[in-house]
Amino acid sequence: MQSRDHDTEPLRLYTYWRSSAAYRVRIGLALKALAYESVPVHLLRDGGQQHAAGYRALNPQELVPVLVHGRRVLRQSLAILEYLDECWPQPALLPADARGRARVRALAQAVACDVHPLNNLRVLQFFEQQWAVPQAERETWVRHWIGTGLAALEAMLADDPATGAFCHGDAPGLADCCLVPQLYNARRFGMDVEAWPTLARIERACLALPAFRAAAPEAQPDAPAAS
User: Fold this and answer.
1) Nearest-10 Cα torsion for 143, 19, 224, 66
2) Is the fold of 5-91 the same as that of 98-216?
3) Disulfide: which of 44, 76, 77, 224 matches 21 by Cβ 3.0-4.6 Å?
């Protein structure tokens, strides 16, 4: 049986207000009502604070998020979310049955492994800095891959009896933690998420919950002040 010492150890999240990977973890922390210290890592300032030697020592990938729990350093958003689920099982982010867990992981990975990496900041910066790809063409790339991925996700969710008010059943979970930040990204690039009615419906159900609102980019301490 796992020790409950983790209940008293502090949580510290290295995050960036507009990072969708960090946004996923903030949602998970909020759903589980876990208090944590937010440590902003500005991905653009000073050439990208994630590239500084101190942060690179914490995460050699030079990415956010990183969750520090006591003396443990945890990387990769999906691994962090599953860690939270194992340490604090309720409310659960994954279903109790093997088939349900496989479905939810597939939905989450469709976003985190297939869609998100292709429109990540470092990919777009490489296009700009190495190949001088114009902004309009970079944005066309982003919209193509987001659209392709979200269309597939819509097909995976629509008319599936396992889909409920949320991606799986009637409680938010791991897949919803991934979906909502990706739809936020889609809007940043001028995409109409109503093109995917099941995704848009699930997003509305998520954003009605305080945990999702608390995790939103604009609600973060490092978000730019509203003009």
Assistant:
1) -170
2) no
3) 77
What is the pLDDT at residue 227? 39
- Residue 17's CB: how many other CB atoms inside 10 A? 20
Retrieve residue 61's tokens: 């990938």
- Give which of 125, 119, 196, 123 is closest to 157, Cα–Cα: 196
Sign of the CA dihedral 160, 204, 215, 138? positive
Do you know the residue count of the chain?
227
Report how far residue 93's alpha carbon sits from residue 171's, in angstroms, rounded to the nearest whole number: 9
Q: Which of these CATH numbers, 1.20.1050.10, 3.40.50.720, 3.40.120.10, 2.10.260.10, describes 98-216?
A: 1.20.1050.10
Q: Rounded CA gap, 202 and 199, in Å? A: 5
The C-alpha atoms of residue 129 and residue 23 are separated, in whole angstroms, by 26
Domain residue limits, the chain: 5-91, 98-216
C-alpha–C-alpha distance, residues 135 and 141, integer Å? 10
In the chain, which residues have pLDDT < 70? Answer: 1-6, 226-227
- What per-residue confidence (pLDDT) applies to 7? 73
Q: Which CATH superfamily is domain 5-91 in?
A: Glutaredoxin (3.40.30.10)
Residue-wise pLDDT for 19-34, tens only, equals 999 999 999 999 999 9
